[in-house]
Amino acid sequence: MRTPLILSLLGTALMSVGAINAQAADGRFYDPSNGASSTGKTIGHELFGTIGCPGRGLLDAACPKPKDGDKDGVIDQNDKCPTTPAGRKVDATGCEFDGDGDGVVDALDKCPTTPAGRKVNADGCEMDGDGDGVVDGLDKCPTTPAGRKVNADGCELDGDGDGVVDSQDKCPTVFAKTSDGCPAAVVAPAPKKLVLEGVTFDNDQATLRAASTTVLDQAAASLKEWGDVKVEVAGHTDSNSDDNHNLKLSQHRAETVRNYLIGKGIAADRLSAKGYGEANPIADNATEAGRAQNRRVELVPQK
Predict the structure, then answer these.
(1) What angle do CA 16, 20, 21 make, to 5 degrees?
(2) Residue 213 DSSP class
(3) Once rounded to an integer, what is the mean pLDDT over residues 152-181?
(4) Is the separation of the CB atoms in 177 and 162 below 8 Å?
(5) To the nearest whole percent, how much of the chain has pLDDT over 90?
(6) Domain termination residue (choose one: 48, 63, 85)
(7) Full residue range of the structural domain in which residue 32 is found
(8) How far is CA 275 from CA 65, 169, 194, 232, in A?
(9) Could you please report the per-residue DSSP string of 266-282?
């Protein structure tokens, strides 16, 4: 009874060989894959190793197995990344996974959840061009100078909120809408004129006497308090001597005072010098006391 069964199976096998050979002749081959099978192949493929091979009979030598050079489970002919390092997880094309799509594979990505569209470095982390700790994608001030302290937006800190960042604010705890962050200096108003009482010269000369320096130093301090007001240094004489001589003498004395004030730090372009001679007396030239008052130098602010 067993002999007819064996013959029957052999006949069936031979018929299968004929059918497979016929398929080979036609260019159509049996696909041995079968997802429902425990081996993933149609029963008989693993046993014979020829089903689905072009031109192979059932009992011929088994087909060569497809190559998988990087052993990632995807055969070389289907592998778009055939040199994947060992142990890496790959997709159906044989390429490593890149979960956040930033161009850096997950195995090398130190920031695997980078938001889409952000620029990243070789580690897969977002770029921080100014190195302030806030990535470019969130940095509202991406060119902050190195070493500056910044807020969550990547912008420099402005502790007093006056619009001047702390690194440039000379008064970082005072709110002041000025270029340096400090309150504007209070400028003393300039008087109509300042008579430099006590400024005297050698007789009929433009040489200052030593006692004049104290008054001139105080005058320089006053000029600094006036701000940038331009001032005329006006020289006056008494009526002794002729008009032309007095005019020249007053001019020289005015220039001497101007030069002294410049030497004390007053900007030269703020000061002009002019001699008026005996033209503008403030006292009676008929008396010695009056003539002494008329020999004077004044600081006259200009409009």
Answers:
(1) 115
(2) H
(3) 90
(4) yes
(5) 49
(6) 48
(7) 2-48
(8) 115, 46, 16, 10
(9) --GGGEEEEE-TTSS-S
